[in-house]
Amino acid sequence: MNIVCIGSGYVGSVTGAAFSALGYKTTVIDINESKVALLNSGQSPIYEPGLTELIRAYIGKTLFATTSYEAVKSADVIFIGVGTPSRPDGSVDLSYIKAAAGSIGKSLSRDRFTVIVNKSTVPVGTADLVSSIIEKESGLRAEHQFTVISNPEFLREGYALEDVFFPDRIIIGSVHHAAKDRMRQLYNSIVYREGYEAAAKYFYFKHNPEAPQAKYFETDTKSSEMIKYAANAFLAVKISYINEVARLCESLGANVPDVARGMGMDSRIGEKFLEVSSGWSGSCFPKDTAEFLHTSQQYGSELTLVKTAMQSNERMHAYVVEKIQHRLKSLHGKSICILGLTFKPNTDDARKTQASYIIARLIELGAHVKVHDPQGMEMFRSLNSSLSVEFCKSPQEAAEETDMVVLLTHWADYQRLDWTKVAKRMKHPFLFDTRNVLEHHEMERAGFQYEGLGLRKYQDLKVSELTKLLV
C-alpha cells in the first residue's frame, strides 16, 4: 500500500515517519522546499522528541519527501495534514486545505480507487468541500473513483510518536465500504502492534507492552469531524474549571492539589487535565475552541460552556499578572524572569501561548522581562517581535539580578535546576510557580519566598476570616 502525506508539520511528518517505519512506502509532500530539504537530509522540520532519529532511519528507504504531487498518482491513501489557522473572528481558514485538494485533484489517477483522508482538524462538512474540489479538478466521480473520509489526529505535541504508535483510539469517519476496508488494513498493524520490532529501537519513551490496544471506532464523516473539536473543547472546559477552583481555594484557604486529587479519584471525572496552570494555550485549544464556538453561533446553537471556558481562561492569564503585582507592587523598575515560553514541555511550539499575554502585560506595566526556554525562544521571538524582552541563554542568566522568577512551563530542565544557586543570583528571591511542580519546602530551603496557585492553607487565614467560613 502506498501512502502520501500532504504537509510536513506535526501531523504530516509524524504520520509519514510512523507508516514508513511500519513498512509502507510513504511520501511526504510539502510546497516548502526548505522543509523538504530537511526531511531528505534526515532531519525533522519540527522539534519533537525522537522524530529526527526515526526520519533518519527510514528516509530514502520507505520514506520520501518532495515538493511534487507525482506520488499522488500511485497512492492508495492520501492524508491531508496541512494547517488550518483561525481567522480573527474565530472562523477557520481552509485555504491550505483547498489548495491541497486542488493539487490532489490535478494529479489523481483514473485507474485506481484512492482514499483521501482529512487528518487536519477541520469543521463539519469539510470532507464534502474537499470532495467537490477534487471532482472539479480531476473530472472523476466521488464515491466511485475516490472518496474523502475523516480520520482526526489526536497527537500531543511532545508525545506525538508515542501517540501515533500507541494511540488510545482511532476514529474513522466514512460510510464507504471499500474505504473502511482499506483503513482497517492500514491501521491493523497499529491496533495489534505488529511489525514494531524495527521501529521500537527508535522509541524515546517507555511503553507498557500490556497496555490496552487502541479502540478502533467507525462512524459517519460529519460525526468524526466533530469528535476532535468536541474532545478538545471538553478538555479546555476541564482545565478552566480547575483553574477557577484554584482561585477559589486561594480565597477560602483550601489546597487545590488535594482538591484535584480527590476529584480525580472519581472514575467519572479522572485525574487528567486537572493540573493547575496559568491557563491553556498553544496551537490547538485556542484555535479549536474559537472555531467550535464560531460554528455553533453560526448555526444558532451557541456552546455557552465553551464560551465561558474561553472567558475564564483569559481571566486566568490576567490573574497571574495580578498575583505578580500583588507581590512586587509597582512593576516600574522591576526585573522579572520568565521561565518557559512554549505552551507545554517537549515542544518548540510557542504559538498563542500564555507567555505572550503575560509578558506583554508585564511590559505594559513597566517591568523589564528576561526570558528563557529550552526549545521555544526562536519561534517566540519570530511571533512576538514587537515585545521588548531580553532572551537569555540559560535560566541562571535569565534570573540574574531579577526581582522574581515566574515558572510558566514545567520543563524537566527547570525542575532539575540548582535553585539555591539561582536564588543567590537574584535581587529578590521570589519564585512564582504557576504549575505547582516545585516542592515549596525545598524552594524555601533554597532561599526563596515561594508561591504557587491555589496553595493557601486554612492555617494561613486570620481567625476572623476562618470564623466567617464556618458560620
From TrEMBL:
Top EC class, one word: oxidoreductase
Any Pfam family hit: UDPG_MGDP_dh_N
Keyword Oxidoreductase tagged: yes
Catalysis: reaction(s): UDP-alpha-D-glucose + 2 NAD(+) + H2O = UDP-alpha-D-glucuronate + 2 NADH + 3 H(+)
Listed GO biological process terms: polysaccharide biosynthetic process; UDP-glucuronate biosynthetic process
EC number, UniProt record: 1.1.1.22
Molecular function terms, GO-annotated: NAD binding; UDP-glucose 6-dehydrogenase activity
Organism superkingdom: Bacteria
Pathway in which the depicted protein is active: Nucleotide-sugar biosynthesis; UDP-alpha-D-glucuronate biosynthesis; UDP-alpha-D-glucuronate from UDP-alpha-D-glucose: step 1/1
Protein's UniProt keywords contain Cell division: no
Family, similarity comment: Belongs to the UDP-glucose/GDP-mannose dehydrogenase family.
Name of the protein: UDP-glucose 6-dehydrogenase
Biological classification of the source: Bacteria, Bacillati, Bacillota, Bacilli, Bacillales
